[in-house]
Each structure stands twice: as structure tokens, then as C-alpha cells.
Amino acid sequence: MHKFINYFQNINPKSIQIHRRIVQYLFLVTTVLIGLQFSVFVNQLENGILPTVSRPPGIEAFLPISSLISLKYWLLTGIFNRVHPSGLIILLIILSTAILLKRGFCSWVCPFGLLTEHLNRLHHFIFRKNIRIPRWLDYPMRSLKYLLLAFFLWGIVIRMNAFALDYFIYSPYNMVADIKMLYFFKNISTFAFWVLVALAVLSILIRNFWCRYLCPYGALLGALSLLSVFKIHRNNQTCTNCQQCTRACPVDIQPHKATTVLSDECHACLKCVSACPEKNTLYLSGFKQTGVLKPWIYAVTISSLFLGGSLLAGATGYWQTGISNNEYLFHVQNLHLPFYQHNGEIPAYNKDAWLRMMAEIRKSQSAMSRNYANGESSNNNN
Ligand code: SF4
Ligand code: SF4
What we know:
- This protein is mainly alpha-helical.
- It has one domain.
- Helices cover 64% and strands 3% of the residues.
- The protein contains 18 helices and 3 strands.
- A 3-stranded antiparallel β-sheet has the order 1-2-3.
- The longest helix is centred in the N-terminal third of the chain and has 34 residues, at 13-46.
- Bound molecules: iron/sulfur cluster (SF4) (2 copies).
- The site of one iron/sulfur cluster has 14 residues, from helix 15.
- The site of one iron/sulfur cluster has 15 residues, from helix 14.
């Protein structure tokens, strides 16, 4: 038993960041593959042919607002809509990681978190040190992301009733929101391009600029992460106050001053734990000194939540969109129509007529598939 407890307490500091890097790059590769597959899917639709590659459901991870609307719709009506179901599943997984494993999504999974870390390195390379902005400026700026979150929550949770949610979810705009997102990056406007350049430059000048000050997703996860039982703990008895943990922390938390880190900014990157030279002094655990979470267990748990959640959703029919390839073909060929646009609000459309038309398109696809299957079997019989 003693050996067992020892195993969970002894952490090899060097291995921590290796585990994190492996998980980060696995998610990055997955994201890139999803993006490429979706680009091919849309490209075939643009060329007027029914796609030969399937649409990757994971693309809906890039539709957080639509997913938040789906979440409220589900809670309010009990209906798990099939327009972008995987977006809602991914949102639920991400929220559960925050409650279970702190804000680890930001530093173990999110590709923008990985990009931010590389921009931080560039910051260090240029300035030869980590420039910290003064606390009097840092605190009000950190509240910006909470204001953005409040804006979205007010617009969706407070203002949208079941009718408005339903109207949005089945709208032509929402049905092609994933394609619109792809076009945003493919045909980026000059304005959007310079905004992205400005964000990148600001992220080099001020470490974690996007994540720390502007990302509303980070704000939501930060708030939820306060509920997590797992926290960074420091053993006062063995700590030598060398402050290496504080110097290593990318978000300017000062673990050397706390016995338990309670900050909403802590994204469980464990850099402080890696930096600590004293054995079993700083650790991520559920309860002080017991329940220490080994980095590989953290890595496996956070990855399994995504993998297991998506597999379970796939097996139970909550992963693939209900939009058929024929409908997608129709959408892409008609994207210029006004009701696919979004200029601050969803343009008016006749929902019943629209859904009837979609049902007709789907029916014609089923008939085509049946004819094709019958044709194939009669050909085989001949
Ligand atoms: S306190 Fe530790 S785990 Fe939290 S963000 Fe700072 S370095 Fe990462
Ligand atoms: S790095 Fe470890 S020993 Fe040094 S101050 Fe932080 S917790 Fe204490």
C-alpha cells in the first residue's frame, strides 16, 4: 500500500511537459486533419458533385456560439437538435474537462493555446525576459474576456426564448455555419486579416494576450474550473521558497506564495510542478498530499474524455449531422442567397417552407440511394 501511495506521489518533473506536448500535438494533428477533410468535402460541393469524402463531425468544434445555443435549446426543450450535434457534444466535453480537470483544455488540447505558447517563446527570444504588465492594468484587462462572455450569455441565455433558439438552429445560416467559418479563413477580408495580424503582434508583445484578456471560452472554463477538486498544492514543510515555480508560470500566478492555487487563470499546464526542484513539494491533487494526479493519468483522462465522448456519441447517433449531402450540395450552390447571410441578425425566412424543402431534398436523396442500391443488386444478379 505504501508503495502504491509512493507511486502516485513521486512525479518525474521532466516527464510532465513531454506528456503535455504529446497530447497537444495529437490534438493539433487531429484538428488539421479535420480541417483538410472538411476543405475537400466543401471543395467537391463547390464543383457540383456529391462528396466522396464524409464530412468530419469534429469541424463543429469551431462553432461555439451555435453549440451554446444548442445547449440552451436542449435544456429548455429536451430536444438534442441534429443540425450540429457534435458541436454540442464537444461543448459538453470541454465544460466537463473544466469541472473535472481545471482549465486543462487551454494548455493540453486547444491549438490556439499551443500557438500562444510558441508566441510566448518568441516574446522571450525578442525581449530576453518575460515582460509582465503591471497588476493595475492586468486586472481590468482580464475582465474584458468576462465582459465578452457576459455579452454572449446575455444574448443567448437571457434574451433567446425557445422560439428564437428554434428559429436560429434550423435557419439556413446555421445550417451552413461550418462552411461560412471555412470561407472566413479561405477568403479572409483585409480587415479580418489585419485584426489577426494585430492579435498575433499583441500576443508577442504581451504574453498570452488572446487567452488571458479576450478569449470568452477561456473565461467560461476559468469560472467553471474553480469547481474542480483538483488544484495545485504546495507543501510548506519542504518548500525552500526558491520561487522557480513562480518564474515558470506563464500566467503570472505565484505558487510560491500559496498553499493552494485558487486562480481562475491556472490552466493546469504544470510548468510550476516541472520547475520545482524539491521532491513532492508542488503537485496537482484533489486533496492535499493525497490524490496526486500523475501527468500521464491527466493526459490519458483528458484525451479519453474527448475520444470516449465522441465514440459514445457516434454509437448512440448524436455525432453525425442530420443534414444530407444533397442538402449540403443545395446549400453550397445557393450560398449567395440573402437568407444565408448574417448581418448582425438572422435574415427572415419561412421556417416551415424551408424545412419542407429540406425534407424533399432528403427524400430525393434516399430515393436516389435506393435506386442506386437496387441497380447495383440487379446488376450483380445479372
Ligand atoms: S500555477 Fe502552475 S499549473 Fe497553474 S498556470 Fe501557473 S504554472 Fe501552470
Ligand atoms: S519551486 Fe518548489 S521549492 Fe521553490 S518556491 Fe516553488 S514550491 Fe517552493
